[in-house]
Amino acid sequence: MKKTVQVVAAVIENERREILCALRSGQMSLSNMWEFPGGKVKEGENLFTALEREVYEEMSCRIQAQEVFHENVHEYHTFIIQLIVIKAELVQGVPQTNEHAKLIWLQRENLPSLHWAPADMPAVEALMNEPLKEQSASFRRQK
Ligand SMILES: Nc1nc2c([nH]c(=O)n2[C@H]2C[C@H](O)[C@@H](COP(=O)(O)OP(=O)(O)OP(=O)(O)O)O2)c(=O)[nH]1
């Protein structure tokens, strides 16, 4: 039986309404696919704390997890992923590529132009279809 792995991933939006996208490196599994930064939740760990820890480990910056945005289950060849996508705010530092091949900020309407990890597609679509009023507070404050 395939193992189910719980993974948290961050949607971090900047004041220009761009979302941070991360390219998995050639050394990682699902190599050369784009993802939202994050990783596996450890046993007994709170989802938000796990996300803040993973982001700090991967990108040396601090985020504050805000709310669960999307959740779905996807079956890969070797495991089943429960992907929990969480809105988060960058609170300290500039994201660094400690593990990823590349980091880019992309307007949400351009998200589908990337080759995403298959499990991420429903969340990408949900972001595309998100009503303007639900989009980030930093963006709303500019209006
Ligand atoms: N962080 C993150 N991982 C994702 C996303 N979509 C997706 O399928 N994944 C997969 C890739 C990995 O197999 C797993 C997250 O594992 P991880 O980031 O903690 O660790 P890892 O790459 O070392 O994992 P692995 O080599 O053992 O598969 O979830 C996503 O949007 N963000």
Explain what the structure shows.
By secondary structure, the protein is of the alpha+beta class. It has a single domain, classed as Alpha-Beta Complex (Nucleoside Triphosphate Pyrophosphohydrolase). Helix content is 19%, strand content 38%. The protein is built from three helices and seven strands. The chain has a four-stranded mixed sheet with strand order 4-1-6-5, sandwiched between helices. A three-stranded antiparallel sheet has the order 3-2-7, with no helix packed on it. A hairpin with a 3-residue loop joins strand 5 and strand 6. The chain is globular. The chain starts with a strand and ends with a helix. The C terminus is likely disordered. The chain binds 8-OXO-2'-deoxyguanosine-5'-triphosphate. 8-OXO-2'-deoxyguanosine-5'-triphosphate (8DG) binds next to strand 1, strand 4 and strand 6. It is an enzyme of class 3 (hydrolase). Keywords: DNA damage, DNA repair, DNA replication, Hydrolase, Magnesium, Metal-binding, Mutator protein.
Walk me through the topology:
Layout: E1 3-12, E2 18-23, E3 34-35, E4 38-40, H1 47-59, E5 62-75, E6 79-92, E7 102-107, H2 121-128, H3 137-142
Parallel strand pairs: 1-6
Antiparallel strand pairs: 1-4, 2-3, 2-7, 5-6
Bound molecules: 8-OXO-2'-deoxyguanosine-5'-triphosphate.
